[in-house]
Amino acid sequence: MMKEWATVISWQNGIALLRCEPHSGCGSCHARRGCGSHLLNELGPESEHHLQVAILQPLEPGQRVEVGISEGSLLRSALLVYLTPLVGLIAGGALFQFLFLADVYTALGSISGASLGFLLARKLASRIEGQSAYQPTVLQIGLPPAAIRIQQQ
Asked: What residue ranges are annotated as transmembrane (predicted)?
């Protein structure tokens, strides 16, 4: 199970809107100066991901929750998104190379195959979008912000 903590933005009628802050893969690494992954993360814009999760328990804005999704469904989604256009690209290029024997047509076939792969991936993704295995679930709920008090002595 892939897990991530998120912050509640709002909760209405059993649907929570959550904000997840992306973390770079090298967040705990000490070799930041020489890490290409860290440099690429610095170049990109700071972004937040919003997602909606069904949960019956009322939540307050600012409350932290742990959400999770199974590794299997995450892997299948990644394969669908990345592999389908790649197979289309290779198949389109190979087919046009076999039929026309010219590099220009091979490039056009590759572009056409990749485009068809993207469209197929989009159609398949819309089919599986509503399945419960592909939906994040709430694993843990933190205390509401109003319940936490710090006493100074």
From this structure: 79-98, 104-121
CB atoms within 10 A of CB 55: 18
- C-alpha triplet 139, 62, 42: angle, nearest 5°: 85
Q: What is the DSSP letter of 54?
A: E
CA dihedral 27, 136, 72, 22 (to 10 degrees): -20
User: Could you report the per-residue pLDDT of 83-116, keeping only the tens digit for each?
Assistant: 999 999 999 999 999 999 899 999 999 999 999 9
- HSE of 107 in the Cβ direction (CA atoms, 13 Å)? 3
Residues in the chain: 153
The model's pTM is 0.66
Rounded Cα distance between 121 and 79, Å, is: 10
Distance CA 91, CA 87 (A): 6
Q: Is 13 exposed, middle or buried (0-12, 13-18, 19+ CB in 10 A)?
A: exposed
